[in-house]
Design goal:
By secondary structure, this protein is an alpha/beta fold. The protein has one domain: Rossmann fold (3-Layer(aba) Sandwich), CATH 3.40.50. Helix content is 29%, strand content 13%. The chain has 6 helices and 7 strands; from the N terminus they run E-H-E-E-H-E-H-H-E-E-E-H-H. It has a 7-stranded mixed β-sheet with strand order 3-2-1-4-5-7-6. Strand 1, helix 1 and strand 2 form a beta-alpha-beta unit. Helix 1 packs across helix 6 and helix 2 packs across helix 4.
């Protein structure tokens, strides 16, 4: 895949951005947060999606079909944990009255609808403008997008740790106006973290730093294996484990 510029949406860590740079690409991070000091454009991407969907001037106007967008769309209301929060029996509601449980569930449902609409609008904008995008989101058993989205994922990585990531969790990737290259560089991570042990985000809809982190090794492998379809310097690394 030939790429002019890379735009990493909802990424503040610089992980994918910096791996793209190592491979010779001009790349930028876009996020409303900048806790890592890596965000090149501190911007409200949700507001930009809404503006683009309404035909107004937005960040998408500076992106061309020769560019590439990697979008780590916030998953907090689509995740398995969020699905559990729709049940009256959810453990976090154990001290709530029935009315308090109902209010919490309805608020969660409203938040999920808001973010679901934003994801659909982002896809619509990208398809309408003929832009290339890959969106990442979890793919565990009860993930909301598994049965309730506009299209199925193009590729699902069932165990990211085998490609060098910190986490084992299944992850889905939607490729728009491009196709996965279906390469696979096996480089297991020996220090795998548990997602349930990570700190929660400070703001609803935003993941904590620890929970949203992706290992640079995984980013490099994924870019080479699935986006570029190029030779990977880690192909022989399996013999080290």
């Amino acid at each position: 895949m030939k790429i002019r510029k890379v735009h990493c949406f909802f990424e503040q860590s610089g992980t994918f951005k910096n791996e793209f740079k190592k491979l010779g690409f001009e790349a930028y991070d876009y996020d409303i947060q900048n806790e890592y000091g890596q965000t090149d454009y501190v911007i409200d991407l949700f507001a930009e999606i809404e503006k683009a969907y309404e035909g107004k001037t937005s960040v998408f106007d500076g992106i061309t079909p020769d560019d590439f967008i990697m979008a780590f769309f916030p998953c907090i209301f689509f995740s398995c944990q969020s699905q559990m929060g729709i049940y009256f029996s959810y453990v976090n509601y154990r001290n709530y009255t029935t009315m308090q449980k109902a209010a919490a569930i309805l608020q969660r449902s409203a938040n999920r609808e808001k973010y679901f609409a934003l994801a659909v609008k982002m896809f619509a904008v990208v398809l309408d403008k003929d832009l290339r995008l890959v969106m990442e989101n979890p793919w565990s058993e009860q993930t909301f997008l598994k049965y309730n989205f506009v299209m199925p994922p193009s590729y699902v990585d069932m165990d990211r740790s085998k490609r060098g990531d910190f986490f084992k969790k299944p992850t889905a990737f939607w490729f728009l106006n491009c196709e996965p290259c279906n390469g696979y560089t096996l480089t297991p991570n020996k220090d795998v973290k548990r997602i349930n042990d990570c700190k929660r985000g400070k703001t609803a809809g935003m993941c904590s730093k620890e929970r949203s982190e992706i290992a640079p090794l995984y980013a490099y492998n994924f870019i080479c294996d699935q986006i570029l379809g190029c030779k990977n310097k880690h192909e022989k690394q399996l013999s080290l484990f």
